[in-house]
Structure formats: structure tokens, C-alpha cells
Fold this protein.
Amino acid sequence: MLRYYKILVGNKYAVSEYSYSSICEIAIGSVVEVEYGKRSVKNCTYYGICVCECGQEPGYVIKPIINVFNYVIDAKLIEFAKAVASYNLVSIGSIIEMILPSSVLKYKPLGLTYNVDGYVVSLDQLLKDGYRRSKLEKLEIAKNCIDQFEAHEITFSQDQNESIHEIEMLKNTCLLEGATGSGKTLVALKGACAHIKNTIDNQHGQKNFGHATASDQCANQECFLKSGINHDEKHIHFAQDKLAERCEGKILIITPEVSLGRNWAEIIHRHFGHFSCFYHYKVSDLYKSSVFDWAMSDQSGIIIGARSALFLPYKNLKMIIIDEEHSSSLKQERYPRYHARDMAILRAKAEGIPCLLLSATPSLETQYNVELGKYDYTKLLRKPEHGHASFEFVKQDKTQILSPVIVSQMHEAFENGRQVLLFLNRKGYAPYCICNSCNSVLRCCGCDVPQIFYSNHMVVCHKCSSTKKLPVVCPSCKNTTTWKFHGVGIEKLLEFTQEMFPEKIIKAVTSQTKEIDEYIEDLNNKKIDCLIATQVLAQGHDFKNISLAVIVDADMGLNSPDFRSSERMLQLWQQIRGRSARHDCPGKLIVQGLSQENRFIQLFNAPDPSKQLMEERRACGWPPFSKCAFIIVKSKHYKQAQVYFGKEIFHKLANSSKAGDIEFYGPLYIGKQDYVHEWRFLIKVPRNKRIDSVMHRIIGQLPKMAQISIEFEVDPYTFT
């Protein structure tokens, strides 16, 4: 006898539940494999979640369920997925696709830790060392490493202990604010452990904690050395009788940059003797499948991930930590669009667990929610030993990439045995290639934006990622030509710095650098004298010997029409300032720009710049004092989209605005990407109204038009 079930399919075009049949009874919440679409089964099978059983035969021919997995998704996660889809105006299928990644479920999972030559080694490290599945399956899986969170005794200051206690008692969303170098990471971890811990007394009916022996401490230290992590005795304080705190549950840590995840993992391993697992685009599908299986298991531990890790189906999740909550990298700009910080708070509420936000430079939205009492708040007062890095503005020299003043101070830093960080948020060698024949700029034909020249003689469009060799013939004048390169990219800055300091070891890092973890480790081990980086290293990293940080092009982005630009620049500069003056090293921030009279430089030196920015937002009625959303119209035909705006959207929005609760601006032409033109229409509503409800009302009025696609973005972070 056939049974009929409603399935949420993991496909971005799936907008609701669909009926499927099965000859067997299926538990509600089961993960299944089904056919979706009109193509053959071989090409269009997707994973989905069984949400309910149909009471009777639907009355039409429906497709069968192909496969049923041993995973069962909790009802709270399904409701969370529906809430995310509804709020962000995306299909429910696109959210299910993140919960059940197709690239993950096709692999048989492996264990996350193994015994190798008497040492416990993580699966992540073994895969990096070139271990194959066949070899891994022969190894003994290690016990009580991933699923046991042991916190060694660490010395904390009074204000740190107060924050730890507040986190221990946490029930809602909380902001943990603290200056760079104040110990937010350790406080958050210790507080999370205290919050979810279940002692051995509760687990095994014992009355006292077990005490670690001296041999246990030696084994832990050998494990640290084996893992390649520096064992700094100054920052580890083992009590004579170490207390082991075991946690039953999982802690999820979301970081805006992958490299920050490694920093968290090192701290967790060094101070807590615990392996973390990772979930982001840089780890293999085989490893992800093992993490997915662990997430669905009863095991306890810590997972560090990017935005997508928020949607894994965790069993027994106890706390979510958002590192650098102010970072714009937490906002996903491609479909499905969402903000990981806001969705983490939503998931924490759905799970009935706390969400901890960490930042030295909190976003204005978070600060405002603290003021309103919606978020709890705790602050670390401790500052670096030498105080914050001093600030100096240096006027840019037109004849050199770096001013002589900066070169001189770099010499001084090197002579004192210190290291230097140079920041330039521009990839490649030069941002513009100009034809010597017609003076036209080389542009991407699909996106109409300047292509960036790299030192390997390749040109790259950073909008669509198309890459090709520098052409011999100019696309504009059709003549054989040579090119002149205008502007400074990170590769050109590296070349200049190496010429100025030929005896020093200098490296450059961007988000595309494969050796980024290696370079960070080399910098901390004093194997690198100077590191040149984009903003990928601007936040979160703990560099012990940096005495000089330099922002090379301070004017970049200062004249943006985006109302968030001042806030982003303020956060970026303060974060870069915090990479120096850490531990026992004094520090200095040098900003190189065209004019010291720039309004933003005055704002940066103000006693409370965030308060000033908040008042400006209040006066103009921009978030957090209102809510915004975009209507995004895309078409391969420029005029067709103009017609749609002129005849369809404009008068409908004009009618909607008569209610007095909507302001609209636009249309704004964004440009084209991959030959598709894009316009955006901005909707603004008062803070006390639900932006998603308003948008759903507008969506119902928007007509469909051939060759026009419409998307939406709620709470946009970029307005240009």
C-alpha cells in the first residue's frame, strides 16, 4: 500500500511542500532523496525533509521517494528554515539546500579524530597530510577528544571573571564588547563552557571531580607539540589539581573570515586541549560529510564555521557565538541573501539558547538594541599593556607608493626587532589597464567594470571572476597596443617594499592566498618581517610582535554615497589599529592619505565617534532607526527593465506609499554582471513595522514580465 508524504525539497526553485509516494512508512523529519523537475532521475535528484503524511491519495500521479537516510531533522529547525525564508523573501527550497547540502550527503562519513603513532590527530589535519579514505578507515578512531570539552584553569582578571559569570547566566542575546587584545575569545569560550557544562558528578553519579595526573599534563603538552601549535607557558596556567569541566552539548562559532577560524581553533586547542571541527568552503566535501554526521550525533564539542555552518542540523546545540559581529562579511550578498548575525539570533530563539555577539567595534544596530534593552551587555575593561596604538597621519607622496616618513619608521621597527603590517584593500598589481593608443580603460565585456591587472599578466574581473591573459589588441580601438597600468594594488606594493627592504622577508596576503594560515604562523614565529594584507587580516588576529600598522590608501572609500561607509571605515581603521600594541609590544597606526582635514579623520580622532554616527543616522532616519529592503530587477535587455520600472513598479509603489508607512527611492542602475543588467529600488519603512510584511504586500502587486527576473534583499548592508 502506498503512503503519501509532503516533502520540502532542497532546490532554490522549490517554493513550497511537494507530494511524494512511498511503499514504506517514513518518520516525520526524515531526510529523503527525491526527483524534482522535469529532467531524468539521473540529473535531478535532490535531498529533502519529510514534513507530514498526506491523509489520502492526492488524486494525480506523483513521483516516488527514491531513498531514505537515517537522519531525522528536528521540527524546530524546519520552523526556523520557514522563518528565514519568509523574512528574507527567498524560497524555502534555498534554505533546505543549505541544511542538506547535496555535496555532503553523497559521502560516507568518517571519524573526526584518530590515533596516529600514540597521538590524537584530527581528520582535518590527516586530510591535509594526504591521507586517503582507505588508509583512514584502517586507523583507530580516537575517543573523548571531539566529544569532551576540557577547560584547564586559566588566570582571568576581575572584569573578565565578571563577564564570564554573566555569560554563564545568559539566556538571551548578549553583546560582549572589549578593546582589541582584551581577551574576548578566551572569555567567550570559558563563559560558554561554564554555561553548558555538566560535571562528571552529574554524568557518572560521582560527588567530586576527577583530578588529572602529572602524566596527563605531559600527554597534553606532547599533543600540543605534535599539532604544531606554539605552547606559550606565559598564557597557560595549569592548576596543581586540574579540574576537568565536561560539556554535554555543542557550541557553534561563526567567523566572518576563514582565517579567523584557525585562530579560534588554536586558542581552543592550546588553552582547552580540545579539537574543533570546521565547516566552510575551503574544506573538502568528504570532511564536510563527517562534520554533518557529527552535528546530527549525540557527541559534544565545538564547531567553527562560516555563514553556512549556521544551517547545519545540530543535535543538542547549546550556544551560538558570532565573532566580529559588525563585519559586513557576515552578510551574504548572493541568493539566498541573509545576514548570518541576525539569522543566528533567530535560530538561538528558535532553539531556546543564548547567542553571544563579540566585537571591539560593535555595529550601530547592535548598539541600539543594547540601548533598547533587547540585548544583554557585558564589557571588558582591560586594555593592552602599553595602551592603544598611537595614531599619526602622513600625507601621501606622489613620487612614491610609501611616504619617506613611513619607510623611515619601518626601518626603525625592523632595527628594534619588531614587525610591520601594511594594509591595502586592493587586489592585483594595478586596478586599471589603459591603452596607450586610445587611452581607454580595459573593461570586462560582461560586466562593464575595469579589469584588474595581476603580475602574472592576467586580467581579472572581480565582479564575475572571469580571468584571461592581457590582450595584445585593444577591444576599444582594435589596434595592437601596449598598456600602461594606473593605481596601486597589493602586488605592486609588495614589489615596492621588497625593493626598499631587500634583506627582509616580506609576504602578501589576500582572501585568495592559499598559504594564509602558514603566513600567519610564520609571522607569529618571527619568520616574516613584514606582512602586506587586504582587510582579510584586519580583525581578530593576535599578532604578538607588530609595532607598526600602516593604512596605505586612507582615501579609498571615504567619498562613497553609502550611508554605512563612515561606520565601515571607522570599524576597519580601529580593527587595523588593534593588530599592533598587543602583549608586551608598543604599537603605532600610520594612516597615509591626501588630506588630514578629511571629515572622517576628524571623526576617527573624536572621543566617541559611534555616538556621533548614531546621531547622524537618527537625524536622517536611516537604520537602525528604520528598516530597508531592495527590489532587484534583472534583465539581459537594458530597455526592457526601464519599461518595467516606468510602467509597472513606479506607479504601484507610489500607490503603496500613500499609506504613509513607505518611502521609496530609485531606480538605481547598479551595472551589469555576466551580461545581465541590474537595477535596484530601495524601500524604507519605520522601525516599528515589519519590513518583511510590507514587502510581502508589495510583492503581491508586482506583475510578471517576460525576460525580467525579480529578487529581493531585506536589511541590505551595501547601498552602492
